[in-house]
Amino acid sequence: MLEKTFEPKAAEPRIYAQWEDSGLFAPRAAKPTDGAADAYSIVIPPPNVTGSLHIGHALNNTLQDILARYHRMKGKAVLWLPGTDHAGIATQMVVERKLAAEGNIGRRDMGRDAFIEKVWEWKAESGGTIVRQLRRLGSSCDWSRERFTLDEGLNAAVRKVFVQLHKDGLIYRDKRLVNWDPHFQTAISDLEVEQKEVDGAYWHFAYRLSDGVTYEHPVAFDEDGKATEFETRDFIVVATTRPETMLGDTGVAVHPEDERYKGLVGKFVTLPITGRRIPIVADDYADPTKGSGAVKITPAHDFNDFGVGKRAGLEALNVMDAFGRITAADTPDVPAEYEGMDRFAARKAIVARAEEEGWLREIEKTKHMVPHGDRSGVVIEPWMTDQWYVDAKVMAQPALKAVEEGATVFEPKSYEKIYFEWLRNIEPWCISRQLWWGHRIPAWYGPNGEIYVAETEEDAREQALSDYDSEVVLTQDEDVLDTWFSSALWPFSTMGWPEKTEDLERFYPTSDLVTAADIIFFWVARMMMMGLHFMDGEVPFKRVIINGLVRDEKGQKMSKSKGNVIDPLNIIDELGADPLRFTMAILSGTRDIKLSKQRIEGYRNFGTKLWNAARFSQMNEARRVEGFDPADVQQTINRWIRGELTKAERQVSDAIEGGRFDDAAGALYRFIWNVFCDWYLELAKPVFNGSDEAAKAETRAMTAWTIDQTLKLLHPVMPYITEELWAELGREGPARDGLLMGETWPVLPDVFVDTDAEAEIGWLVDLIGEIRALRAEMNVPPSAKPPLAFVAPDAATAERIARHRDLILTLGRVSEVAVAEAAPAGAVTFVSGGATVALSLAGIIDLDAERVRLEKEIAVFDADIGHVNKKLGNPNFVARAAAEVVEEQRAKLAEAEEGKARLQAALKRLETL
Fold first, then answer.
1. d(Cα 187, Cα 171) in Å, to the nearest integer?
2. pTM score, two decimals?
3. Is the pLDDT of residue 104 over 90?
4. What is the tens place of the pLDDT at every residue in 128-154?
5. Cβ contacts of 187 within 8 Å, gap of 6 or more
6. Tens digits of per-residue pLDDT, 249-275?
7. 429-430 and 235-240: which strand pairing?
8. Pick from 43, 171, 50, 130: which is nearest to 497 by CA?
9. Average pLDDT rounded to a whole number, residues 378-391
10. Beta carbons within 8 Å of 536's beta carbon, 6+ residues apart
11. DSSP secondary structure string, 765-820?
């Protein structure tokens, strides 16, 4: 007999060990008859080696595991390939902090080789944390194939790709603007930049026009916006939130159609402090409606300004060093007093000087977004520096075409728009990072600055012999590659490329990729570019399934500062992995998943419901029977549940195949809770307790068979409890062949759906449902058993009444089931299955008290409806509120209107008594 409850804390480690020991995580052996359709592969989005399991990981890996377990049970050779990312900047930061906490010298004093050795030591000790946590979630990855983006195989792949792209002219070195982190002393990607709202200001500076130039500037306007008064000016006003960058200004931009400044285009201003003469240029970037309409241009310290500078031929002058300090290295006209000054100290000094000299015209306080390093927390500086780049524009074209032509599809399809928009406007990809931990760039420099790109230093030396008569000292580039560079090779490098391996032959291209929308361009698009370039034009995956973002129950982003973070490991400790997994699946159909602990607890109750149903079946001797064939059952309830199970199997299979995990979970929930537990087992009770031994034996066998098939259907979503039930229920009846995980997915024939049984049981279920709803609406006490009468039923209905009288009495909680020519006095009538049914309530409920209760509850609904209608009727609310907030209010309105209608119907029924 099953224990009273399932104890996940004790069962999950034991069950996972059984799975892992079974060898079922690895792909099954190849068969001579296997074709491409017999393999299913998916590569895990590699979590950072520094990471711990968060709720986003729980969602993403649950969905992947559902796919892997489903296709494995479908008989396919499944490869779910796991691994971790070396996470350059994050790992380097973790190890540096650890060294500092232990009182060690800094990495620069330690030296590169010694520091890298320390990082590998840390990785050996602590780098497996997230892999262990993924196991706790139930992830059925093939751990024997686990990869690391810095392992030797992937290192070789990275070097080969870099060298080949360089030969193809698609990797090059250039001086461009990057996101520079002054704390970590490295360029970082856009994904590592966090925009924070800060209190700041627009400082309005007056730049004096050169050569005695003046112009007439409008200062008053009529109702039509036409200038009516002018003043003569010998200056132009610009505004900036970063006054320190003015030291690097090389131009002022105005819009070409701005009438105020048309006559100034081509003229010059004299930059305060430096005395530098810089031109006024026309560019669409300048917005006539903002500020003065004139914009200072600092090409070396602003991404937009860099573009203007390119178009206008303006010089790019670096006025800061790698630490964010002012430097005159590129700009000798910067006064010595600013040399070495921190950028924020320089800001204060420049503003003070502007005020003192009279060219500060206004300080406009504002809140604005400022980029910060997500790891360092310092303000990011757009900085001009020499870096390595990929010509992403060229590589993007095949990646665009592949999705346009359907070689790779996105689910939901709407996410293709993000993919297309980024690739069609793609910029060169900066791939070098000024770190030590990572793939060191395979480029060596000769004594005269020549660059030799090669897979090994030996190859580089051979190249150098073409420039030198003898061996010379070569110095390898100090930088490492962007982490996303090695991640872009993940689908094929993890399968052994550049070698021609059996895994590549069998599992590439992969079937699915499950990932988040925020890395469509950072990762998905780059994998597409690399895969198409190096794998003979084959896409790396056939389908991309985008999962939503998990938020708190109010739709707010989770953050430690808000205290609203749900830790999946705490949930697993307290409730088990299965309720978390089921919640992730059933909520996965929305872009923003609103999650609360209460929702997860609710789905724990769902698991408990199944456990109790299995236990009830055991108590009623429902055991598996050797040779039992569900095709032969005769009892109506058994033919009915067979059909309901068949329909559920179709729904679950179609939903998982289509990547609609919410639909799959919803179908499972409805069948298990609403159909099997609430109805079938209730309908089976009289059979179990009856004297018809043949019906009893058939129903017991059918119950056991149905539970077995149900466990198979639920297993991909809730693997632990289903595996435990499979083992425990298998102790009785024919011996099990092995683990549930290795069972075959049920594919039930269409003939299992019996329309006669469906109509018969459907009639009974609808009738009982109507009685229960009416009892609830009319506030009938649970202990009360009012009489029920069918009013002049037809012959078919009369036969059904006779067949199911005992069930109607029990499940409807009524004292009698009669047939009458007219509804009895004091009865409330309703229609079910085409028949008029009367439930006698006279003397059972207090009519006056019930009328008052209903009127009060209707008034509450009226107040709610009025409140929501007032909000939705406010154009400002609808225009300004977030879409999900407006939708939530509309849902509230619909719910309130439905509730009011239900109570009004109950009140109307009272009036007939």
1. 17
2. 0.86
3. no
4. 899 999 999 999 999 999 999 999 999
5. 178, 179, 180, 181, 385, 387, 430, 432, 433, 434
6. 999 999 999 999 999 999 999 999 999
7. unpaired
8. 43
9. 95
10. none
11. HHHHHHHHHHHHHTT--TT----EEEES--HHHHHHHHHHHHHHHHHHT-S-EEEE
Strand partners, 360: 205
Cβ atoms of residues 346 and 327 within 8 Å:
no
pLDDT confidence band for 126 (50 / 70 / 90): confident
Q: What is the mean pLDDT of the segment spanning 39-68?
A: 95
Coil/strand/helix, residue 213: coil
Q: For residue 846, give the DSSP letter.
A: -
Residue 561 has pLDDT above 80, yes or no: no
Torsion angle of C-alpha atoms 342, 343, 348, 349, degrees rounded to 10? 70
Dihedral over Cα of 444, 446, 449, 451: its sign: negative
Longest Cα pair distance anywhere in the chain, in angstroms? 116
CA 7, CA 30: separation in Å to the nearest integer? 38
Cα–chain-centroid distance for residue 671?
Answer: 28
Counts for the chain of helices (H) and strands (E), in that order:
29, 31
Q: Mean per-residue pLDDT for 275-301?
A: 94
Q: In whole angstroms, what is the distance from residue 189 CA to residue 431 CA?
A: 9
Copy the structure tokens of residue 586.
């059933």
State the burial class of residue 19 (Cβ atoms within 10 Å of its Cβ: 0-12, 13-18, 19+). Answer: buried
Provide φ and ψ at 455, rounded to 5°.
-70, -30
Here the tokens at position 616 are 């009830």
Look-up: residue for tokens 């990797």? 171
pLDDT per residue as tens digits for the range 775-792:
988 889 999 999 999 999
Taking the C-alpha atoms of residue 721 and residue 7, their distance in angstroms, rounded to an integer, is 9
Q: How far apart are CA 528 and CA 537, in angstroms?
A: 10
Name the amino acid, one letter, at 538: E
The Cα 190–Cα 793 span in angstroms is 72
If one compares 881 and 361, the residue with the highest pLDDT of the two is 361
Nearest Cα to 446, choosing from 417, 466, 430? 466
pLDDT band for position 884 (cuts 50, 70, 90): confident
Phi, psi of 900 (to 5 degrees): -65, -45
Between CA 450 and CA 432 the distance in angstroms is: 18
Distance of alpha carbon 578 from alpha carbon 835, whole angstroms: 44
d(CA 589, CA 591) in angstroms, rounded, equals 7
Residue 106 has pLDDT above 90, yes or no: no
Q: Cα–Cα distance between 104 and 99 in angstroms, integer?
A: 5
Spatial separation of the C-alpha atoms in residues 543 and 402, rounded to whole Å: 11
- Each residue's pLDDT tens digit, 806-825: 999 999 999 999 999 998 88
**Percent of the residues in the chain that have a pLDDT greater than 90, as a whole number:** 81
Which H/E stretch holds residue 343?
A: helix 343-357
Q: Which helix (H) or strand (E) is 510 found in, with range?
A: strand 510-516
- Using CA atoms, how far apart are residues 375 and 480, in angstroms rounded to an integer? 18
Mean pLDDT rounded to a whole number for the chain: 94
Taking the alpha carbons at both ends of the chain, their separation in whole angstroms is: 51
Residue 499: exposed, middle, or buried by beta-carbon count in 10 A (0-12, 13-18, 19+)?
exposed
Detail the DSSP E strand segments found in 264-404.
Answer: 268-270, 277-282, 294-297, 360-373, 381-390
Beta bridge partners of 513: 544
User: How, if at all, do strands 277-282 and 251-254 pair?
Assistant: parallel
Question: Using H for helix, E for strand and C for coil, what is the string for 585-621?
Answer: HHCCCCCEEEECHHHHHHHHHHHHHHHHHHHHHHHCC
Nearest to 149 by CA among 60, 47, 27, 53: 47
Where does residue 424 rank: exposed (0-12), middle (13-18), buried (19+ CB within 10 A)?
Answer: exposed
